[in-house]
């Protein structure tokens, strides 16, 4: 969640794009990915406020929903008025607050013509640069050509950054040749069939269920 949020927002301004309507569902996909909270059997609270809120909804739902349905429900993308209460609200604002408490972000006021807006710039831009470098290396110098040998957290970040339309933030600084190679390898990941990958040894069922929700 936090890594996708940092990848998505504009470092100096301290907010995400007003025009990107993909980030919300991508963040809910992270919630589905984290600690396999979308499994049918849900255990005790985790201590993460956003995750526990999602777990509470899931535990109360019978019959169980699919992973794709839960991403839509948590995002508020449902026409069923009886399920609107499942939406996780103000996720970006709550993430920013958590990162301010951790000292990763700070809080400022910016004036936008007719109104003031609270923003959350990074306290140290090296934090985002390290994250961007990690994403770049995953599809360049440290590319292993096998998703099951990649770090699962990083693999999830690549998929969800693409689904959130913010992967370009990580690739924009690359040279043309590097950019072409990075996007080609991401396309290889996107062309994988999640149902086939899910059947392989040592797979992560929830990760591939979330990938399927965004790629199909």
From TrEMBL:
Keyword RNA-binding belongs to the record: no
One GO term (biological process): Golgi vesicle budding
Gene Ontology MF term list: phosphatidylinositol-4-phosphate binding
Keyword Kinase: no
Protein localization: Golgi apparatus, Golgi stack membrane; Golgi apparatus, trans-Golgi network membrane
Membrane topology: Peripheral membrane protein
Pfam families the UniProt entry points to: GPP34
Keyword terms: Golgi apparatus, Lipid-binding, Membrane
Family as reported in the entry's similarity comment: Belongs to the GOLPH3/VPS74 family.
Protein name in UniProt: Golgi phosphoprotein 3
Source organism phylogeny: Eukaryota, Metazoa, Chordata, Craniata, Vertebrata
PANTHER family on file: GOLGI PHOSPHOPROTEIN 3, TRANS-GOLGI PROTEIN GMX33
Native source organism of the sequence: Malurus cyaneus samueli
Gene Ontology cellular-component annotations: cytosol; Golgi cisterna membrane; Golgi membrane; trans-Golgi network
Location (main, coarse): Golgi
Highest taxon above the source species: Eukaryota
Regions annotated as coiled coil: none
């Amino acid at each position: 969640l936090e890594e996708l949020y940092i990848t998505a927002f504009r470092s100096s301004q301290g907010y995400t794009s007003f025009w990107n309507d993909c980030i919300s569902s991508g963040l809910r996909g992270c919630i589905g990915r984290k600690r396999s909270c979308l499994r049918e059997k849900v255990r005790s609270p985790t201590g993460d406020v956003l995750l526990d809120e999602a777990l509470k909804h899931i535990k109360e739902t019978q019959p169980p929903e699919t992973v794709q349905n839960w991403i839509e429900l948590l995002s508020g993308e449902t026409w069923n008025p009886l399920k609107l209460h499942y939406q996780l609200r103000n996720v970006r604002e709550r993430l920013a607050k958590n990162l301010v408490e951790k000292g990763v972000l700070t809080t400022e006021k910016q004036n936008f013509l007719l109104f003031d807006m609270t923003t959350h710039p990074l306290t140290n831009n090296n934090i985002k640069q390290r994250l961007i470098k990690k994403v770049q290396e995953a599809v360049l110098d440290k590319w292993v050509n096998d998703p099951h040998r990649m770090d699962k957290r990083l693999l999830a970040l690549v998929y969800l950054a693409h689904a959130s339309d913010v992967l370009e933030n990580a690739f924009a600084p690359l040279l043309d040749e590097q950019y072409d190679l990075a996007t080609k390898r991401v396309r290889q990941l996107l062309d994988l069939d999640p149902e086939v990958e899910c059947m392989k040894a040592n797979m992560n069922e929830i990760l591939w269920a979330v990938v399927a929700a965004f790629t199909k």
